Amino acid sequence: MSSVGPILMSVVPSIGLALIFWYVMRAVIRADRREREELARIDAEEAARAARTASDKESPASSE
Predict the structure, then answer these.
(1) What separation in angstroms does the CA of 16 have from each of 4, 6, 7, 21?
(2) What is the pTM for the complete model shown?
(3) Which of 17, 24, 36, 53 has its CA 20 to 30 A from that of 8?
């Protein structure tokens, strides 16, 4: 039983480092997902605005 202490002392830092790495990677992936969602929302708004502008320009010409 006296060999359990040194084994734990050698494994705990590796587990701690793995947990830190997991947390950082999770944060990076979540930030990337949020950024992609926001860019998609902005692109959709710009496309809608462009379509609205194009339809506004076509309306007066078709009524003449």
Answers:
(1) 18, 16, 15, 9
(2) 0.65
(3) 24
